[in-house]
Design brief:
This protein is α+β, with helices and mostly antiparallel strands. It has 21 helices and 13 strands. The protein has four domains: about 120 residues, no CATH class; about 70 residues, no CATH class; about 80 residues, no CATH class; about 90 residues, no CATH class. The strands form five sheets. The chain has a four-stranded mixed β-sheet with strand order 3-4-6-5. A three-stranded antiparallel β-sheet has the order 10-7-11. It has a two-stranded parallel sheet with strand order 1-2. α18 packs across α19, α19 packs antiparallel against α20 and α19 packs across α21. The two termini are about 25 Å apart. It binds S-adenosylmethionine (SAM).
Length: about 450
Amino acid sequence: MLVNAGAYPHGHFIACDINPDHIIEARSRAERFAIHNVEFQQASFEELLAQEQLPQFDFIVLHGVYSWVATEVRTTIRQILATHLKPGGLVYISYNCKPGWSPEEPLRKLLVELSRTEAGDSAQRARGALQTLNQLSSKLNYFKQHPSVITGLNAYIHESDNYLAHEFLNHSWQTFYSVDIAEEMNNIGLAFVGSATLVDNHPFLLVDEATHEAINQLPTDRQRQLAFDFACNRRFRRDIFINGTVEPQKSLLELVSHIPFAAIKDPEFITDIVTTPRGKISFGKSFMVELRTLMKQGAISFHQTLAHMGGKSRNEMEILRNLVFLIAAGELQVCQNVHVAGTGNRVASPTIRKMLEFIIETGAALPLPSPVLGNGFPLDVVEAVALVSWLDGAENREQLVSPVQQYLRQRHRATALRGEELDSQGRRIGKQVWNVLVPQMVGLGIFT
Ligand SMILES: C[S@@+](CC[C@H](N)C(=O)[O-])C[C@H]1O[C@@H](n2cnc3c(N)ncnc32)[C@H](O)[C@@H]1O
């Protein structure tokens, strides 16, 4: 929410949670980062719905909520959607789904039951229940029948106690079939648009051709959607619904030609082999060379890209498809705006400045809001150190290197890493930030 609010300073955001701790933490971060366009409401969804002043929204985002609340709360959520989403407005709703979660559901039931006799607060009871179950598991036939659950159980052992309590001791926790969610949304006038997990919108990237064809033969959308969830054994969905109807599909070119996209990492590292649920896809050498060069300019539209790529013999559809696949695989990101790269006057908004300081102070991985991406740009703490030196006026890349080296030496003073190794790491990072990261972030409007 805060990253989005930072990326859209002219938007107005309302953040709601029933838990006062979450609201206090989020509000204090917003204050610290000088983000002033979020209104925080410590309220239940029921209380939110009852407010006379509650406005009509362009977007409503429910991340990690629908599977974690009771039936009556979901009813209230749907009432909010039905009455407070503008015509044409969009809802993002994520939830745990079947069939991917099915083998693990009994595990949760057993954990909840075991936790009833454990001592301590909910976090301690969750940890205790997990330990008891871990000792029992080798004797229980259920685990032999479902080896994937053992993998899940082993992963939970490493989670924090609070996460375990939140995840397992929540009696409302539920999984859904995506078709049932779609029906609930249809009943309040919302139509399914697609998945916010972009790769899920491209059947070709999910399953092989024979499977795709077999599923496509099924007579209804509902059957096809469910069959895809089974084909991918999906356990989590991030669905987008619209208040209205979905326009009939135009051609891919018409649909995307004006949409800008950009790299959110060093363009030289855009990979030429991406892994999708279906397998690996590789891209031609000359296509990648041209693309990496273009992406150094910041955000550019499909239309502009096509004009620059492939020479006279270019195959527009193939270029387009490759770009869509690279976006679906997360190598490129769709943007809000095309940005004409500025000269880089080393100006950062107070929000960006304060976020950089926060990253350095806490080591937290906090994406920086970019008005061009309309989203966050991921950043490493060491890069943040170099960027602050740049903002403070470093005149050449050497002047970025020494603060980074100093930071690394400080951070690793208790480890076996040798000083020279850290210094060469510092030189590499300083060079990279000066040559690549700064121009890229100027291109993405994070600095002006
Ligand atoms: C799984 S957490 C997800 C939190 C956050 N959206 C995220 O993705 O990190 C579910 C959240 O729903 C909130 N919640 C549960 N019941 C609620 C209700 N009736 N009204 C408002 N918020 C509620 C909880 O306090 C909790 O913060």
